[in-house]
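Kindly draft a sequence, keeping tokens residue-aligned:
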Amino acid sequence: MNYWPLIGILLILVGFILKFDTTAVVIFSAVVTALCSGMSITKTLTVIGQGFVDNRMVSLYFLTLPMIGLIESHGLREVAVKTITKIKKATPGKILNVYMYLRGLGLLFGIALSGQVTFVRPLVSPMVLASAEAQGKLSPHEREMLKARSAAADNISNFFTQNLFVASSGVLLISATMKSLGHAVSPSQIALYTIPMAVISLLVESIDNLWMDKKRSRNEA
């Protein structure tokens, strides 16, 4: 057995540890792995190019970046901040809970909000920061923590509720994989068994967000 192709894994680990450019590390490791497997340069480039073409849909989210920059330059962030400061009872935890449940509800019906790029960065995070700043000045650490909590709320709601929609790509992939392994699992069964974990995870995160508000109010008092 030829163990030389496994050197690609080592290169990825070393590259990530040394904090080299992620894309460059992955491509370099792929080329080294291919060459150690006995593939020619031509074949290696063909495989890499074919892989990019076959998965080009994954990179479509890059198209949203110019749009986000354009709407931010026209005052979307300022409007969101002004709106949230007018709501006296708005707190960071409540805003995160509302967004988290809206995100999950959208995924229940197969509607993806494209979280981090189109909502968290330009809308949710500024609104959370504005509601917190209305209660008092934030330290740099608190600002970064609230930004992280905004991203976490999106990740949690997306991860635990994306399989609630019976025709989602994740559900269909799981169903097809299980059938290929000899287990007859229908998409509806997968969506059904997703419900308990989705409910539990959203409730736990909701309580944690409200607990964060309570701790902040204690510190300010």
Observations:
- The chain is about 75% helix and 0% strand.
- The longest helix spans residues 187-220.
- The chain has a mean pLDDT of 83.
- Residues 128 and 208 are 15 Å apart (CA to CA).
